[in-house]
Amino acid sequence: MQKTVILGNIITVDERRPFAKAAFVKDGVFAYIGDAGEAKKLAGADAKILDYGENFIYPGFLEAHAHGALAGERAIGQANLSQVRVTDYDKYREIIKDFIAKNPQREIYLAAGWIQNEEYKTKAYLDEICPDKPLMMNTIDGHSMLFNTKALEWAGIDAEYAKKYGYDQVHVDKNGEPDGYVCEGPLFEIVPKLPRSFDDFKNYLLAWQDIAIQNGYTAVADAGVELLNPSVTQAYHELEEEGKLKMRTYAFMMVPENAENPKAEVARIAADRAKYSNEYFHVVGVKAFLDGVIEAHTGWQIDDYLDTPGYHGLERFNDHDKMVELIVAADAEGLSVHVHSIGNGATKFMLDCIEDAEKITGDMDQRNILAHLQFVREEDIQRMANTGSVPAVFTLWCPKEANIYEQEVRYVGEKIAEKGYPIKSFYDAGANVVFHSDYPVSPLFDIKNSFYAAEARNFPKGIGKVAQPRNMEEAITREQSLRAMTINVARQWREESRLGSIEFGKIANMTVFDCDFLHDDLDKVAKAKIIATIIDGEEVYKA
């Protein structure tokens, strides 16, 4: 029998006992929370002691929406451009050239983390860096990619291909030939074809696990497991069989846009759940893209883009009847539907579908998730709560970041841009708010700064970004932030009886920081340091 006593300032997220000084863990489960003396007495003299002194112990933090294999690949398999905080094409060039020089054996080169601005680049920019092999440069949001000439040839992207997908997704020059800029749908066809081995996928997932655990996360949602390749699901399964998964992953499996047979898609995912799910990798839902992103002109808005009259963005999954069928079929299998929804048009569409699905199922607790929610109409905020839907938001996208905010204003107008990224309104409406990072699509993967930005609606000093607060009416309390990274996420996964708080009988996952996130000065919060990450009562990371 494994017995451990954990000592420190414990913040439980349990309303009946908010604070404690000790926890007794038996076989990976909380057996007692309360007084240090009583915990030691119950554990016995042979118990292991983890004494964190005056540091603060929280329930293990939970990530509501990330991309595991993609995160690992960007960490160890690509040229990383996200270290460049603002658009700098000269710096991107240096990083890519250095990566190519260090990896001459590669058949194809990838770079990721490029930030778009008004300076439009074409294949010629990459041809200058790499004329003889395929080179692709992915934007930081993952929704657009720049191809060099060799990469266009490798992917089979020609004039006919551009015509098939449409020029809003495959940009062309004045002669109708692809100019190298490709976004949205085609990428989900091309990316899985990139040359990678099965061992690569396993290594990517292990690298991601290290990143998450070292940042204080004990369980995560993988929102679209097969985004990189369909084999990633099997890679997760094999790693669990090999005993290499420490962190629990709750998986959402991809469905195509306007799926021809939604019931068949759900049946396939339910079969994968039966085949692959276990304790550390578990399929809990389906994932679909409703739209793209504002910066690529592909976020689905109700009104037209101001700079492009007659165009309101890209409607990726826009078949109402098929989405209703998907939600109903998923609910019958106990699965949630998790959608990417940036624009207010996409969110309105999804809530319309959820309302109609609930009339069929009678289930008002489906816990379908709408992630990102950059722009949301006021009436749809209340509908989110009324339908039991989960708003997945990210505080570090809230500030009015230099250049990016100005671009938003040009595209959708200042009135809409100023109201971007609501959070408090969702709480006030009674919705189960969760935080997510969308890592590595956003490299801002940081618990302490999530607390900071939720209250300040701005970045802390020293993060390397220039911004102003946006819409301070949407600021929330520290306790609300803590719940949005713990118990609320557990509810999203229907795991609130096992995860999300430090309570008797729950899995003993904890994260230790040197800071009281609920009461310390906000500037101190921004400088907090992680001390340890504990999973199943075992210290899996120590700073």
Structure description:
This protein has 543 residues and is α/β, with parallel strands linked by helices. Helices cover 35% and strands 23% of the residues. The chain contains 20 helices and 23 strands. The strands form four sheets. Strands 5-12-13-14-15-16-17-19 form an eight-stranded parallel sheet. Strand 14 (281-289), helix 11 (320-332) and strand 15 (336-341) form a beta-alpha-beta unit. Helix 2 (68-76) packs across helix 8 (198-214), helix 8 (198-214) crosses helix 9 (232-241) and helix 11 (320-332) crosses helix 12 (344-361). The two termini are 27 Å apart. 54% of the residues are buried. The mean pLDDT is 94.
The number of distinct β-strands equals 23
Q: Supply the helix-strand structural class.
A: alpha/beta
State mean pLDDT (0 to 100 scale).
94
The biggest sheet, with number of strands, parallel, antiparallel or mixed sense and barrel status, is:
8 strands, parallel
Q: How helix-rich are the residues, as a percent range? A: 25-40%
The number of helical elements comes to: 20
Please state the CA-atom Rg, rounded to the nearest Å: 23 Å
Oligomer: single chain
**Separation of termini?**
27 Å
The fraction of residues assigned to DSSP E strands is 15-25%
Poorly predicted segments: none
Inertia-based shape: globular
Strand arrangement, major sheet: 5-12-13-14-15-16-17-19
